[in-house]
Write a sequence for this structure.
């Protein structure tokens, strides 16, 4: 139970940070992507801050065998850039550019009752479900081929 309470407060802190940074406002994101128009560079500072925190957190995590809450550490091991990674990145970027949302801010905005966020989160959930269906189908085909 203590882990869930900690997870809740970490998520709450993350959501408040997104609100304070203006990342729950799609026009902020779209303004950053509008290089030829009224470019808003503030998202670059938010991303830069996130990258710095991430670099420090991953450097610290690599030296540990358990998380701060006692769970096992599961860090990515692959450094391969393949078609799936590139395709997923392009799809993520296209959705981000069209809607002005990425998953975290969309969920925070959904909680604030923004209708556009509800449509985005619904589409995101459908995309996740389609991915899972395709993955399971491919896993069954691979298992049957051996």
């Amino acid at each position: 139970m203590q882990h869930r309470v900690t997870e809740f407060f970490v998520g709450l802190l993350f959501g408040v940070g997104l609100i304070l940074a203006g990342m729950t406002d799609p026009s902020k994101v779209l303004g950053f992507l509008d290089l030829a128009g009224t470019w808003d560079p503030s998202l670059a500072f938010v991303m830069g801050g996130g990258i710095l925190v991430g670099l420090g957190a991953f450097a610290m995590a690599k030296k540990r065998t358990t998380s701060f809450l006692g769970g096992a550490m599961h860090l990515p091991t692959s450094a391969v850039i393949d078609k799936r990674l590139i395709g997923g990145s392009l799809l993520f970027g296209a959705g981000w550019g069209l809607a002005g949302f990425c998953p975290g801010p969309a969920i925070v905005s959904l909680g604030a009752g923004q209708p556009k966020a509800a449509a985005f989160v619904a589409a995101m959930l459908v995309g996740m479900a389609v991915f899972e269906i395709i993955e399971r189908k491919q896993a069954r085909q691979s298992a049957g081929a051996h």
